[in-house]
């Protein structure tokens, strides 16, 4: 994360680790989710491929850190946190 992003999100740090799926599976009924939901949706790796849009459509994308920083700044500006 760039320096600007760290300064903006300093008060609200990103999670440093993940909870094991089994532990989450044990506590989800208390959080309002079903164990079936955890089984089907937690721990699935994301795989994205934007090569078509980059090569054929000649699109460019903003860096991930910049996108997250801007999104977080908007959340703060809107007073959601």
If you had to describe this structure to a student in words, what would you say it looks like?
By secondary structure, this protein is an all-alpha fold. It has one domain (3-77). It is 53% helix and 0% strand. It is built from 5 helices and no strands. The chain starts with a helix and ends with a helix. The mean pLDDT is 85.
What are the defining features of this structure?
81 residues, mainly alpha, 53% helix
Largest sheet: none
Proportion of β residues? Answer: under 5%
**Count of discrete domains:** 1
Structural class: mainly alpha
Number of helices: 5
What is the mean pLDDT? 85
What proportion of the residues is helical, as a percent range?
A: 40-55%
Rg calculated over all Cα atoms: 18 Å
Count of individual beta strands: 0
Distance between the termini: 20 Å
Q: What's the shape?
A: flat
Element pattern in H and E: HHHHH
The low-confidence runs, each spanning 5 or more residues with pLDDT under 50, are none
Task: Describe the SSE topology.
Layout: H1 3-8, H2 21-31, H3 35-41, H4 51-55, H5 64-77
Concise account of the structure shown:
This protein is mostly helical and about 80 residues long. The protein has helices at about 5-10, 20-30, 35-40, 50-55, 65-75.
